Known about the structure:
Elements: E1 2-6, H1 13-22, E2 26-31, E3 43-46, H2 56-59, E4 66-69, H3 75-85, E5 92-95, E6 109-110, H4 122-141, E7 145-149, E8 153-154, H5 169-175, E9 180-183, E10 189-190, E11 193-194, H6 195-203, E12 215-217, E13 224-225, H7 226-237, E14 243-246, H8 248-254, H9 259-266, E15 271-272, H10 275-280, H11 290-302, H12 312-330
Parallel strand pairs: 1-2, 1-4, 2-3, 4-5, 5-7, 6-15, 7-12, 8-11, 9-14
Antiparallel strand pairs: 10-13
Helix pairs in contact: 1-6, 3-4, 7-11
Amino acid sequence: MKVLFIGGTGNISTSVSRLCIERGMELFLLNRGTRKMDLPGATVLRGDMTKPDTLTGILAGHRWDVVVNWIAFTERDIERDIALFRGKTEHYVFISSASAYQKPPSHPVITESTPLRNPYWEYSRNKIACEERLRRAYRDEGFPMTIVRPSLTYDTVIPVVIGGWTEYTIIDRMKKGKKIIIHGDGTSLWTVTHAEDFARGFVGLLGHQQATGHAFHITSDEILTWDQIYQAVADAAGCDLKPVHIASDFLVQCDASLRGTLLGDKAMSVIFDNSKIKRFVPGFVATIPFHDGIQRTLAWFHEDPARQVVNRETDALLDRLIGAYEKNALQG
């Protein structure tokens, strides 16, 4: 199977790329070559998707069994891809986001038929617009698309709300015995998925004839509270957890940049029903519990001191938010 990944070296996509190679797929990666890559067996095509006119020569002569775009974020990106790959691929896969699902959800169990609506986050609304454009292309011209909606998926990132992701700030605070913010009362439910687990479901969809026209989410079945998620991070870091529970609304009031990731995503309890991906990819199951996966993630950070980036602005923001909350609590 001849597969083109647009991107393919990110937090989620690297695990998928490795599994494709392991399964004998002929994998091409189209990117600008700015990220260090360790994917022997993949063929790299240097190109910039923001300059589609420059891609004609790079893509000339190729026909793909599958094209996956890991870095499409706007409807304009989708228009470009339809024009580039119309008649040149048997299967096009768009990476959307589970944050596109209805917020707040009218029902806590999320299936692929849950409505798409997110008034809190422009990122999610743009993903919805991308999906709608692809559905029109499928209906009107048979463009062979599939939509995949990852939720909070990690490997080389720390999946917490503030001070994590590519930063090491949250771990630095824990090691120094500083307080850590957990949004809400810590009891809302969430699912965190390791990229290697996601890859097993995702690769099973590539070239899957019956997946055309469908949307899927692919997540772990492990359901945790946010208190449990932060405790697992602290355990992996070998630190005591000193949580401060702060209402999401208060956090957003203090810092509007948190509106999307909190009110538009992580503030509400969500339980993903994975029965659809399991029907299409028999045998798919997530096997890496978060308590184990986050230890692997921190081991990756500890392999190279350059990865342990402590953002002083983020650290100051956390102190400021905790200070504002504690002052407000004292004032009654």
